[in-house]
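User: quick one, fold this
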Amino acid sequence: MIYREDNGQGAIEVNLRVVESLCGRVIDGFDGRVIVSDPRGKFRRGAERNPEEGSGFVKARVKEGRLNLQLFLIFKFGTSVRESASVLAKRLRAQIPLDIGIEAGFISMVFVGTLSEKLSKRRVIFVDDGGGELREVENGET
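Assistant:
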């Protein structure tokens, strides 16, 4: 479980599987141009692991009442990585409060590879901190 809120009428709990489902639906809107991955660039399927652990393409944590995400993705050759990351961040920022009920914090998108006929490993990281600017970061920088 990554989030729990007790209120007067009961408790709200959100596990990683819920966050992955939300992210997966948003990513599906890219019509296969953006694909989920694990941190090493292996394609992932949703039901491969324990629902509480998730499938590995999203790391999520609630900090200061905001949901911070790190997504591991592969993009198809010919896709604009910066534009895709920007659109993905905007869509996630709009959908997270609707589905989960809390605001999005940092959204980090790690593009681990480019797919044409074969997967070419890369590591391009974009971060959206909610300030309106998408920034590209070096490994280790946040």
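User: anything notable?
Assistant: The CA atoms of residues 48 and 55 lie 6 Å apart.
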